């Protein structure tokens, strides 16, 4: 299949979506998906799928995104295996009843939170990390005892097609249904009643998903996008900051939801930072990144044209070369961008990095706070007082001090957005909880009955109740 062909779910399968969802729901209702053996099998299946198909998945991502082999591993295949294995190792303790204390007024009693599966989860995925952003949410759903309907992205058809054809061999066929296709398929799925929707994609489509979910009052977890800023403080080694920013922007050719979108640095240090980032890119990709096997491509001609148009009327200080045929766009730095231009108002999602000169740290913090809350924020400073101040005075889904992207990685660090960058958290226990109904249960013995609570309410009863509740 070529990158321009969009795989489609046949219409007869779409007609039967309701019946498929009911089939998946009955796996949950029967209690089968609550057994630890069943959950172990699905999580093992995900890890085995990645291990046994590493070559094919790497090839598919190279076709879709020109993805370098190691980047396919470190950003998609490796983390999917490690998350499935981590969940398998830990979900039993998260699934166990969680004891909570009970006030005197309700004694004698025991109280606990009893996690239970929600049911059938719809997972809608984007194209930029087309393995990881499918498998990690799916693993969390399975760990919590749910079944999954998956809609991978039509924009990465080689990867989507491979997953649709091979993944079902590794998991229970009553646990997973995959529907390939674009907006029409998503729309047909969203008309159905699910028990949870996990959506990763753009903020605009997130609104469409939430509207559709409202119809059935289905809970949503929205992993959306935005413009993630980098603040480089005065005290930090500019070469180190430059390399780490260059790496975060270069990975997957900048097509990363938490890629540094733009950089704020004091005006006097701007040129040194720009030179440092350029040097780092040259070290990584050589003088001509087009020839580098380690630099990816833009996912489609449409996305390439949008990125190139962002450069209109801007001052390009580094890079800027592009070629639509090979979907190549050089790592590029823009200085003094027009602040009301699309480059500075839309999520960039490609290898273009505006570097904006500011007066000082306060000015940088104000710059961030005057704009929608971002998915990630990066601050570079060796002075903990400075980075803490930035963290306290700004709001973002997540943050990373003195590096970029890395906060995505730890299993126990909940990942997600805030405001227009999304809602809800996943990874590790946060993902398990997101796909669970955390049922609050109070258990009372039948012995030791007191009539205190029952009418008629006398004066003594009333006094006692007010004292102890
Ligand atoms: P997108 O919103 O265009 O598409 C995401 C999914 O929604 C795809 O499967 C697509 O088929 C489907 N879709 C598209 N239009 C739809 C509609 N009108 N109705 C229903 N479904 C629709 O996003 P994308 O271009 O695939 O991905 C890029 C975006 O995703 C960026 O904004 C990026 O920041 C964000 N993203 C966020 C995270 C995160 O973890 N927060 C991770 C990766 C990407």
Describe the overall structure.
This protein is an alpha/beta fold. Helix content is 42%, strand content 18%. It has 17 helices and 18 strands. The structure holds nicotinamide-adenine-dinucleotide. Nicotinamide-adenine-dinucleotide binds next to helix 8 and helix 9.
The gyration radius over C-alpha positions equals 25 Å
Number of domains: 2
In which order are the strands of the major sheet placed? 10-13-14-9-8-15-16
**Second rung of CATH, namely the architecture of the largest domain:** 3-Layer(aba) Sandwich
The distinct ligands, each listed once, are: nicotinamide-adenine-dinucleotide
Measured by DSSP, the beta-strand proportion falls in: 15-25%
Named CATH topology of the largest domain: Aldehyde Dehydrogenase, Chain A, domain 1
CATH homologous superfamily descriptor of the largest domain: Aldehyde Dehydrogenase, Chain A, domain 1
**What distance separates the N and C termini?**
67 Å
